Amino acid sequence: MLCRCLVAILTVAAVCHSVPAQDITYRKDVRPLWETKCGSCHGQDAPYYGDFREDKERYVGEELGPRMDTYADLIFFVGWPDTGAFMRRLDDGKSVDSGEPGNMYQYLGEDESERQKNLKIMKAWIGESAWKLKRWKASGDKPGITKEELDLLKIKY
Question: What are phi and psi for residue 139, nearest 5 degrees?
Answer without folding.
Answer: -140, 115
